[in-house]
Design brief:
mainly beta; two-stranded antiparallel ribbon; 8 strands
């Protein structure tokens, strides 16, 4: 998805680069979904800049794992999950110092909440 309809044509190749950031909103929307739903990293609307983080990954959908993170204003936030050989899932995440998180884990097959926990900063495994 390009920013302009003529950003690339077979006849002329790429158009003027000052109008082609290669970072169109469509790419951002996909990235936002991956962070917010697959990895489960969400900003609490009541606390700006990820001071309090909502962690609720949604494993499954044919994928056996997901892993990612980013630098927030408070430090690195990361999240990963993996499907184990017995069908269970492992979840690991890290939240920066001076932040808190609410972790909400759901059963991938039913979507029902199986664990909710309030956590301080650190690195956690479930």
């Amino acid at each position: 998805m390009w920013e302009r309809w003529n950003s690339y044509t077979i006849e002329r190749g790429f158009g003027p680069v000052e109008m082609n950031s290669f970072n169109h909103y469509a790419y951002g929307a996909i990235g936002e979904w991956l962070f917010a739903y697959s990895l489960g990293i969400q900003c609490d609307e009541g606390t700006p800049a990820y001071k309090h983080i909502i962690l609720q990954p949604r494993p499954g959908g044919g994928y056996s794992y997901a892993k990612g993170g980013f630098e927030s204003p408070y430090g690195r936030i990361s999240s990963s999950w993996e499907k184990n050989g017995d069908g269970s899932y492992s979840y690991h995440f890290t939240i920066p110092a001076n932040t808190t998180a609410t972790m909400i884990l759901r059963d991938p097959s039913t979507g029902k909440v199986v664990l909710t926990r309030e956590l301080g900063s650190g690195s956690w495994d479930f």
